[in-house]
Specification:
Strand content: 15-25%
Radius of gyration: 16 Å
Number of strands: 2
Distance between the termini: 33 Å
């Protein structure tokens, strides 16, 4: 038996407002566990909605370099 995947259906789901809310909620959870100075920025891509979290201040940048705070928070949330 051969499976025919509905790629457009997957893309429609990944662009949906519900998925955008889930991604935004996850980035808010991550930001709440980080020190001040980190921010999130989201955008609708070609096939999915995505957000990036990054150090926006020199304090946060140094914190990331010294402590790997982003990786520690993601590992603590069960991320890979």
């Amino acid at each position: 038996m051969r499976i025919k995947w509905d790629i457009r259906g997957f893309e429609e789901i990944r662009r949906s407002p519900e998925v955008q809310d889930l991604v935004s909620d996850l980035s808010d959870t991550i930001l709440a566990r980080l020190p001040q100075g980190y921010i999130a920025s989201g955008m609708q891509g070609k096939s999915r909605y995505r957000e990036i979290i990054f150090a926006d201040t020199s304090f946060a940048y140094r914190d990331q370099l010294r402590n790997n705070s982003l990786q520690k928070v993601l590992y603590g949330l069960g991320g890979s």
